[in-house]
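TOKENISE THE FOLD
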Amino acid sequence: MKVEPITLIRNLLVSIGKSSNALLTPLPPSGSDRKYYHIQFEKEDQPDLIAFYNPIVDENKAQIEFTRHFRSQGIHVPDIVAYDDTKTVFILEYLGNKSLFESLSESDNEEQTIAFYKRAISDLVRFQVEGVKGLDFTKAYPVADFDRQGIMWDLNYFKYCFLKPAGIAFHEGQLEKEFLTFTDTLSASNPNFFCYRDFQSRNIMIHDNKLWYIDFQGGRRGPLPYDLVSLLHQVKANLSEEMKELLFSHYLTELAKVAPEEVSQVTYHYNHFVYFRMMQVLGAYGFRGLTERKAHFLQSLPMAGKALGLLLKKHPLDLALPELNRIFNEIVKKYSEEFQEQTKILTVSVSSFSYKKKGPPGDFSGNGGGFVFDCRALPNPHRLPQLRDLTGEDSAIQHYLSEQPETRTFLNHVNSIIDASVENYQERGFIHLQVNFGCTGGRHRSVFCAAKHAEHLKKKYPDLMVKLNHLEIKGHYDR
């Protein structure tokens, strides 16, 4: 019988002399599949702890080795209080719940923000240059080196986990050639440093006015620019161009103290890694958002598009990669606008989709979804040879479905349901409502119904902002 992680954690607490009655609060999931819990005790003199469950033992072994090594060098990483015999359940010291990312949104003190970032960059240089010395990379997971293979993994992650589910068309052969060219360029950067792999503000905790670093267990030997880019070009941190330039200059100053021969190489390769990191991030957003439908990652897509557009404008890629540049511009066109304007105007996103293909669209508003209406009980034009190759935007399909009493009844019911929500949402000052229509292929009934409902809303509520998208015939998700 499988034992639940929370039971394993309580058993581990007892084994180290802690109370089994501690309050265990699950923490929100992040980009990994680990399960984290905040541990609080009844007695005030017992400090809080953090526990996690991760069935990937080799990854946990990397955390044990890296924690031991970095703490021996005086680098602030959380201590491992205990782990069980299976090395799947860990208890760590608690560092509070305020990360550098949270401090960005809470504070308008730019000087303090810059000071924190400079300290983080100074520590990054320590991780990279000093931290690599004596580190046992045989424990690294899943690989010891961030080499050509690792670069191609991330590029293909971008292709298969973002481009395909997002419906961005590309020339497979040409893109593969350009990936190889790009890999050659990135591989020319000195790979003999510690590459943290996820050095960004959410993984930097502020505790006792010190910076602490978490989620380094995926680290490996690799190039210097990757981690700096991860920090300065984190999409949701949205640092200004001026701040990025200031902090980049600070990094070069710190690097010159310990590895002056690397300054010119970092300067040359920096922009290449900015684009590379952007592709890696989009791959993660695609997998966690478009595929797994996690709201946090869906909400990040428009910001990523906006950041990519700014990057193309201010720092164009200085490599001959025409297909990749075309793809970048397609992404910007699709995602760069903010999902919704921060106004009190209610936006209703109306979409059609296929149950058998892409499924319902993701909700970029963060509301977690909206109405989904199943049109598959309506008469199906696909069964008529003369209508099969048309779509719900064609007059013949529109005439056919309009004449069906089932369709009129269905839309009347839908309109009544959505009208009630629209009026309620407007009264309460909400700014987004999602309405989806699905059918088997996403080309006939759902397209017709979505268009008719959008037409109804525009006519009845002239002050409403209505966005209409068709996933199958237009090839993109509602934004």
In short: The first helix runs from residue 5 to 15. Residues 347-474 form one domain. The radius of gyration is 26 Å.
